[in-house]
Amino acid sequence: MCSHCEHNHNEHGHCEHNHSPKIIFKIAISVLLLIIFMVFSPEKIAGEKFSGAVKFLEFALCYIIVAKDIVQNAFKNILSKQLLDENFLMTIATVGAFGIGEYPEAVMVMVFYQIGELFNSFAVKKSRNSISELMKMNPEYANVVRDNLILKVHPSDVKTGEIIVVRPGEKIPLDGIVTEGFGSVDTSNLTGESIPKELAVGNEAVSGCINLNSVLKIKVTKEFKNSTVAKILEMVENAANKKAKTEKFITKFAKVYTPVVVTAAFLLAVLPLLFVGREPLVWFRRALIFLVISCPCALVISVPLGFFAGVGAASKKGILVKGSSCLETLSKAKIFVFDKTGTLTKGKFSVSKTVPASGINKDELLKYAAYAENYSNHPAAQAVKAAYIGEIDTSKIEDLKEYAGLGVCAKVFSKSVIIGNLKIMEEFNIKVEANNNVSGTVLYVALNNQYAGCIEISDSVKTNAKDTILNLKKFGVKTVMLTGDREFAAREIQAQTGIDEVYSNLLPNEKVEAVEKLMLSQKTGDTLVFTGDGINDAPVLSRADIGISMGKLGSDAAIEASDIVITDDNLAKIPEAMKISKKTLKIVKQNIVFALGTKVLFLVLGAFGAVTMWGAVFADVGVSILAVLNSLRMLYIKRM
Ligand code: ADP
Ligand code: MG
């Protein structure tokens, strides 16, 4: 529960409401009164006789103004049997201080505590802002065309198949295909990059982008709840639910810690009396100071905040992290595994050679191939379709079957067509004629179970693949590539990128096995990251400790199976994510060590009477503020 209102905390442990003005007001009034009362001492006004009572009433008033909600919460928690939180610590410490006549100190303890809270709420707001910048992509309306009229409706009221109009400066509210118009859109909401993207008729328009300079008509292909925008927002909003181990540790820790310090304070007040037997007030006072020092606010605040800031810093760069636990796991990564096609390579194949067997010509071969590939999403299929000039009569395609990681079988013009890699040919017992003139990726074609030729397709390595691998190696990790392609093509990519190991000829399930083997080879605690483009690698994405999917914002399966989504297909974001995760963990650890260290030091000093009530307050607020500032450094991380 929020210490300032009736509302429950959200998943980040912070109240959704903005209490800053109210708290500032309370602090100001209380401090003002405190100063007035200290300057105009009651002796002068009320005379000697009543001064004690007046003084008490005056400071009690200040105390109530600033501390009412904290004391109330302490009582509420006791009633609901969750005593012993920081509200409770602060309350008994300050009420006790009143008891021994330290009125101004008691008030100031609460004032400082409230200042600490204030500071914390600023920090949370700051890091939440960077996440809500991303939320800006949430569209408020869509202009839908109905009966020749343009109506302004909520995006969720638009059905698939309807046409929407997006004017310059407006957000694209729903995913769809451009049917009219030509212009550029700003994808920075999604990707963190402010490079405009060109859109023309037939192109896919992704929701959340901002239309820059033209009127676009878009045919909606997905309902709002399945749109890219909705998926991403959902993912970011859920991010904090998956708590990191370190965070859970803190919650558990706080549960044990508070009873321990309360008991210690009690013993500190009572035990010396039994042995030393004198000056009960001295020890009572020390016990109270001990309690003020022990308040674990800094720790409880700064750890979740550190993670939260990390998630925020990442999303600012177009790296969507599904939870603080992912950042923690990523920071321990020792092996980075990549899929080849579409991940390390551009995934844009083009046909570079067509080699027909005897009895068939090039055009025929390409025609059968293109018909068979018509419904496939595989990059290889796109290449074949692009190379075939002519219409595809879909009524001539029957009995279609796609084998993930192998190829496709279909009946085309009543002839059976098999197209794919060498493995699928072996599977169907088709004898392939060896051909040394083809390199890279080769698709073999069989007609009526007879070898009919091959098609060489070529893809190119992403320009920053080499730098990415190099940057990752700086973290001391091993890099591995898995591919369903043949070894020749795999080795070529290895030579171009400098990746450590390659495994070729793998079916999707063999990719899972390869990843499992690599995971087994690791020391406990080390983790493995798999990066894929989401086309037939969802199983591996979810099997790896961390699955990163790239680029394919349209692919729901990939977004769901992965822990981190990179919103554009920029490989450089992977070392960047690694850097953010390492830095987050470093900051969180610094906070823990610093907060615990100062705590222990001051507790010991307090027990020996070397700290005053003022010192105790400064220690706690000071540590909280420094920890919060330290967490905020996360938001100013530099690019790699
Ligand atoms: P990668 O591991 O490189 O991402 P895939 O596992 O997607 O590759 O596919 C492995 C191989 O299977 C491809 O190189 C290609 O030869 C073949 N293949 C897969 N799908 C198809 C298809 N639809 N048409 C032709 N060949 C395919
Ligand atoms: Mg693939």
What is this entry, summarized?
This protein is an alpha+beta fold and 640 residues long.
Q: Can you characterise this structure?
A:
The protein is α+β, with helices and mostly antiparallel strands. Helix 9 packs antiparallel against helix 20 (573-607). The two termini are 40 Å apart. 46% of the residues are buried. Magnesium ion binds next to helix 11.
Tell me, rounded to a whole number, the average pLDDT: 83
- Strand residue content: 15-25%
**What overall geometry do the principal axes of the alpha carbons give?**
elongated
Helix content: 40-55%
Distinct ligands, ions and cofactors found in the model? adenosine-5'-diphosphate, magnesium ion
Describe the secondary structure blueprint for this structure.
Elements lengths: L19 H20 L2 H38 L6 H14 L3 H33 L6 E5 L2 E5 L9 E4 L9 E5 L2 E4 L1 H4 L4 E4 L4 E2 L4 E2 L4 E5 L7 H11 L6 H31 L4 H15 L2 H20 L2 E3 L2 H8 L1 E7 H5 L5 E7 L5 H12 L5 H9 L9 E7 L3 E6 L2 E6 L1 H6 L13 E7 L2 E9 L6 H9 L4 E5 L4 H11 L3 E3 L4 H13 L6 E6 L5 H6 L2 E5 L5 H6 L2 E3 L6 H35 L5 H20 L8
Parallel strand pairs: 11-18, 11-20, 18-19, 20-21, 21-22
Antiparallel strand pairs: 1-2, 1-3, 3-9, 4-7, 4-9, 5-6, 5-8, 10-22, 12-17, 13-14, 14-15, 15-16, 16-17
Helix pairs in contact: 1-2, 1-4, 2-3, 2-4, 3-4, 3-8, 4-9, 4-21, 7-8, 7-9, 8-20, 8-21, 9-20, 9-21, 10-20, 12-13, 15-20, 20-21
Bound molecules: adenosine-5'-diphosphate and magnesium ion.
